[in-house]
Amino acid sequence: MAPETPSSSGSDTSIRPPMSAEERLMVAVRIRPLKPDDTTRCLYAVDKKHIIVEDTDKFDVTRQKRSLDKRYSFDVVFGEDSTQEDVYEVTTSRLVKDVLNGYNATVFAYGPTGAGKTHTMVGDANQPGIMVRALNDLFEVVKDKEDEYQVSMSYLEIYNEQIRDLLNPQSGYLELREDSRGKSIQVAGLSEISTTSTDEDEEPSNNILYTQRSLAREERLFKFEAIRNRYTHRSVA
Ligand SMILES: Nc1ncnc2c1ncn2[C@@H]1O[C@H](COP(=O)(O)OP(=O)(O)OP(=O)(O)O)[C@@H](O)[C@H]1O
Question: Is residue 201 part of a domain?
Fold first, then answer.
């Protein structure tokens, strides 16, 4: 899907015609720069829609077919020079406008550990990611329209099939509940904050996301260590 240029107004009153299936779903790939401890590169952006995953064994002379490089197509490919703004503008900024027009939208990052999901979604104060930019745009539009829009926000983590409220981590693990008809699934006890504030002290995009991200990462690292130790122990036993 070729991403369209967002409309100029954040609160279009016109209802858009139904979107085609291609328009409703976009799959983007972002290649992060190599880090000093990355040994070799095996993933290359060919152009804005294609990547090549290099066959790292292709120089093995015993192999009959010398190269098994694989080429894949995506809606958008972001190379290692892509900025947080590039990624946000192409993948998400239009969704914020759609949400303001009453549509639902979901953006999620998927990839192995260290791939750059947190960087892309949250980023840091100098390079804010998708979640922060989306909130900023949302607050910008609704700031003078409190009678028209109500913004509330929850922030949860699902890790090892356990759910935690990142706005209130002390609340422990939370449960999923569904109504008697199975139509509405909710996380019981998940906190929800309402705000249209752009005040830095209260601004979730400036404050809560970063704080909770650090906390979540520390705890996850701890959990990862714990799991690794357990496996090590088992393999030795
Ligand atoms: N596009 C990028 N440009 C510069 N640095 C990046 C980029 N993407 C990721 N990094 C850096 O790579 C490291 C790993 O990224 P990140 O923590 O976002 O990975 P992750 O996919 O969230 O990993 P995990 O699943 O383990 O939490 C971080 O130090 C991050 O700052």
Answer: no
The residue range of the domain holding 188 is 152-194+207-237
Are residue 26 and residue 125 in the same domain, yes or no?
yes
Q: Looking at the domain assignment, is residue 170 inside a domain?
A: yes
Per residue in 18-53, pLDDT (tens digit) is: 555 556 899 999 999 999 988 888 899 999 999 999
Rounded (10°) CA dihedral 54, 59, 65, 67: 20
Q: Are residues 87 and 190 in the same domain?
A: no
Tens digit of each residue's pLDDT (9 = 90 or more) over 2-22: 333 333 333 443 445 555 555
What is the sign, positive or negative, of the torsion defined by CA atoms of 158, 160, 161, 162? Answer: negative
Residue 12: phi and psi, rounded to 5, are: -60, 135
Is residue 116 lining ligand 1, measured as CB closer than 6 Å?
A: yes
Residue nearest to atom 3 of ligand 1 (CA): 32
Q: What is the ipTM of this complex?
A: 0.98
DSSP conformation class of 169: G
